[in-house]
Specification:
elongated; six-stranded mixed β-sheet; about 325 residues; about 30% helix; alpha+beta
Length: about 325
């Protein structure tokens, strides 16, 4: 007996935008219908409009991210494993393909899914276009409490596609928007920052169960040691220089030197988890480096903000 686990998760967004320009592809896809009754119809529409594999992959990503809504109810109540039996490898592969196709079609028709539905629909549509695609499961880094923890749970699913003999990483779920932790509602916010994302950047919030899909020489200890990077940081040209580890050893009253590389003289604010209000702070500039002095306050976590949006978070030990 074999079980496929349909994962669920609470997620952040986003990462560094794709370097390639797919504006014409996106413009065409935005003119597509909001819904399709069959996988074949969507596939044929994309196939007729785009010849290059990378453009077809982009069209699949964009349509899914624009039109599939995260299924909050399913996330909240959880899912049960899909169980099936088989007598041979051939029968096993056939049943797995049937399950994939069924989930992909359900995602297409209902226009709702959790991560596994997004990733399965993406995979099936890629394979219909004869594009090699893998569904990857693993751990997402999404909360302050994840800082310092090595990946253990499997709570997320994403994809890798082979284009021009190179594997590219894609997360259509996080491309669709994010789950608001305050009211537990899905906030639609299309972004292409999870399309063909550089492995080093993708690694900030994704750790695959099968380490071959890291596509980088990082490891689980590296993942655990990372701070929690928010979309404001990952969407920007800012580079955190110090502290570069997620856990800071300090006591109340100590001073932490926060250093970033930036072309602009950014004013930041910070807040400790047990304090009701934050503090604004001006930098001292030395070339393209900005230095900030932060006095350690009360709480186990320090969050740094840029223009009132969370930038990066650390754990105070």
């Amino acid at each position: 007996m074999r079980a496929i686990i349909i994962c669920s998760f609470l997620f952040l967004f986003a990462l560094t935008p794709s370097a390639q320009n797919f504006s014409e592809v996106d413009k065409k896809v935005r003119s597509y219908p909001n819904s399709f009754n069959s996988l074949e119809k969507l596939h044929q529409t994309i196939k007729n409009d785009f010849n290059k594999p990378k453009d077809r992959v982009r069209a699949i990503y964009t349509w899914i991210a624009l039109h599939i809504e995260y299924d909050v109810k399913t996330y909240m109540k959880g899912t049960k494993p899909i169980k099936y039996t088989y007598r041979s490898d051939v029968e096993k592969l056939r049943k797995e393909k049937e399950i994939e196709n069924k989930l992909a079609l359900k995602t297409l028709k209902t226009r709702k899914a959790i991560c596994h539905g997004y990733a399965t629909l993406f995979k099936v549509l890629c394979e219909m276009s004869e594009i090699q695609c893998e569904l990857i499961t693993g751990t997402s880094k999404i909360s302050n409490t994840d800082i310092g923890k090595e990946p253990q749970r499997v709570d997320h699913a994403w994809n890798a596609v082979k284009i021009n003999n190179q594997w590219k990483l894609i997360d259509a779920t996080w491309g669709a928007g994010y789950l608001n932790g305050q009211n537990m509602k899905f906030e639609k916010k299309y972004t292409d920052v999870f399309f063909f994302t550089e492995p080093e950047k993708f690694f900030y919030n994704h750790f695959p169960a099968d380490k071959q899909w890291l596509l980088t020489n990082k490891n689980s200890k590296d993942f655990a040691s990372l701070p929690l990077f928010y979309h404001t940081y990952l969407d920007s040209n800012i580079e955190v220089i110090n502290p570069h580890k997620g856990i800071i050893k300090a006591k109340r009253g100590d001073t932490i030197e926060f250093v970033i590389r930036s072309e602009e003289k950014n004013r930041i604010s910070y807040k400790f988890s047990n304090e009701k209000s934050g503090y604004n702070i001006e930098p001292k500039a030395k070339g393209d480096l900005l230095y900030y002095k932060i006095e350690v306050g009360s709480g186990s976590y320090l969050t740094i903000y840029l223009n009132q949006s969370a930038l990066v978070a650390y754990k105070i030990h």
